[in-house]
């Protein structure tokens, strides 16, 4: 079993201990784990999370240094879900549609295969099988959507996304299923809807589900989707 490496950073150059020969580590990230083992395809699956500029005050994150990257992520996600102030541009239909369409455009361009995703009021989760380094994927997604969203909002030149982001390599089939269910249930846990498929801006919604092909994780897409739905209904 390869030794697991992880680090948590806010800015600056990537830590050498987190370097992988296939993908350079993402800079300005909250968490990073080494690529998964041979249980998954040669190109490892990854979960990415990014959020609006100003939605997570720097003096509130990261939590105490004893927290693991996973615990830090849960803290961050709960804070964003419960935030009563700060920007919430992603709850606007035009902006949410822009982000969803951009995620699907990345699939058409061959940048990744897209699995579960959720566009919340102030942050985005995406589970994918990348063909490019996650840092390049995030730079492309955030750069294009920031420019277009600011144009729609009439705030050209203003920062839209927070510079920092979170990524995590998915290590096995069980973790893939758990993360997919977590992402699609995020709107339910946040109290926005009572059932995952009622939320318009996630892969649980039929509008987007028919356009998403979950990446292979040692099982058929049908088995993956059935397993996720079973978790959702529980």
Molecular structure report:
The protein has helices at residues 69-82, 93-108, 134-153, 173-189, 206-209, 221-233; strands spanning 6-7, 32-33, 46-52, 112-119, 123-130, 161-169. It has 234 residues and is of the alpha+beta class. The chain has one domain (6-233): Alpha-Beta Plaits, CATH 3.30.70.1290. It has a four-stranded antiparallel β-sheet. A two-stranded antiparallel ribbon has the order 1-2. Strand 4 and strand 5 form a beta hairpin. The chain starts with 5 loop residues before the first strand and ends with a helix. 38% of the residues are buried. Residues 1-41 and 217-234 have low confidence and may be disordered.
Quick structural summary:
With 234 residues, the chain is of the alpha+beta class. 36% of the residues lie in helices and 15% in strands.
Q: What labels describe this entry?
A:
single chain, 234 residues, alpha+beta, Alpha-Beta Plaits, four-stranded antiparallel β-sheet, two-stranded antiparallel sheet, 6 helices, 6 strands, 15% strand, globular, disordered N terminus, disordered C terminus
